[in-house]
Amino acid sequence: MSKRKEKRERRKAFSLLYTMYNILFRVDGSSNIGMGHVMRSLTIAKEFRKMNCNVVFISKYKEGVEKILEEDFNVIKLRNGIHLKGYDYGEESELKAELEELQKIFNNYSYIDLFLVDSYNVTDNYFLEIKKYVNRLAYIDDINKFCKHIDILINGNITANDMGYKKYREDQLLFLGTKYNLIRDEFKNLPKRSVNDDVRKVMITTGGADPYNMSIKLLDILLKSEKSRNLQYYVVLGKGFKNKEKLKDFSKKYANVVLKENVKYMSKIMLECDVAISAGGGTLYELCSCGTPTIAFIVAENQEKLVDKLSRLKYIKSIGWYDEITKNKLISVFNKLCRDKDARKDMSSRGQFLVDGLGGSRITKEIINSLT
């Protein structure tokens, strides 16, 4: 057998091997809970798909389902529950109804190799019930709760190793720290950032949903300030935005406000802009990988430690909680960063060393090895 044919046969055998694995994701995204869970689940799901695993999503809300379908994954849609706040844990009546739905789904599979959950609406009992039907149970976590019954725990945040995670069993897998950060493929192997002398272009990104209308609040402050009113602003509109019409009015009124909707490659905008103002969460890692100097604010409890640590280590500048942002605070931090090229260069250089973009592939390879 020729070497080329032998290589082809090995590749075919590899492909056949991994098509045996059924991998189900349970994740939601909406205007209330944001799209961060969906985005990081998609990152790891794409890695499993490269290995020819059978990947299926289970999800509730319209915005999240649409995003998953956009990425060409199959979705089983659950009934919309009553739990809409997004940041509280374990609404028992909803979880009980959901478990009944999940059981019916599980019964359609002869074997479920991996069930991966990325949600805050969970409890220990929820996980314990799911474990009856699946081989391995994985959880993408942020704050070290409900990890007792998990087989595979993923927390790719810079804060993960400070949070007191422990193994409950010898065979439990823990993927902790930025080595395992679930950043998207487009942020791999980016060139070293060249920092301009002057700030001309500013990116505003407030998450996939912007439930607190921060895009409008930020623009209103910046466009009324003498030193920032003439800059070019690129505002990213997420799938779950409810305030698009107001933002379109802003864009009509101000020629220097450009709305970016249905963005295919976020890295392109990040690399083009001199400074970003961003909500906390996974987007901060993307901005770091692009070397974009960033001012961040907090919109959820699970973001607070992340934003605080990134700011303390000088990867970003923090302006605190979204509802405590004043005109004076924003303008002071923004103008100071714009004036200080050395600070922007330092932030840019630090950020590009933080995440290498290989977290998803590292995790999936180790998980597959644990299943064999």
Strand and helix map with partners:
Elements: H1 3-18, E1 22-27, H2 36-50, E2 54-59, H3 62-70, E3 74-77, H4 92-106, E4 114-118, H5 124-130, E5 136-140, E6 152-155, E7 173-176, E8 201-205, H6 214-222, E9 232-237, H7 244-253, E10 257-261, H8 266-272, E11 275-279, H9 283-290, E12 294-298, H10 301-312, E13 317-321, H11 327-339, H12 341-352, H13 359-371
Parallel strand pairs: 1-2, 1-4, 2-3, 4-5, 5-6, 6-7, 8-9, 8-11, 9-10, 11-12, 12-13
Helix pairs in contact: 2-13, 9-12
**How many β-strand runs?**
13
Q: What is the radius of gyration computed over CA atoms, rounded to a whole number of angstroms?
A: 22 Å
End-to-end gap = 28 Å
Counting H and I runs of at least 4 residues, what is the number of helices?
13
Question: At the third CATH level, what is the topology name of the largest domain?
Answer: Rossmann fold
Mean pLDDT: 91
Reading the helices and strands in chain order gives: HEHEHEHEHEEEEHEHEHEHEHEHHH
Major sheet strand order = 3-2-1-4-5-6-7
- Give me the CATH superfamily of the largest domain: Glycogen Phosphorylase B
Q: Identify the CATH class of the largest domain.
A: Alpha Beta
Shape: globular
| Main sheet specs | 7 strands, parallel
What low-confidence regions span 5 or more consecutive residues with pLDDT below 50? Answer: none
Quickly give the CATH architecture of the largest domain: 3-Layer(aba) Sandwich
Tell me roughly what share of residues is in helical segments: 25-40%
Protein name: UDP-2,4-diacetamido-2,4,6-trideoxy-beta-L-altropyranose hydrolase
Keywords: Hydrolase
Pfam family, one: Glyco_tran_28_C
Binding site for substrate: 184, 286
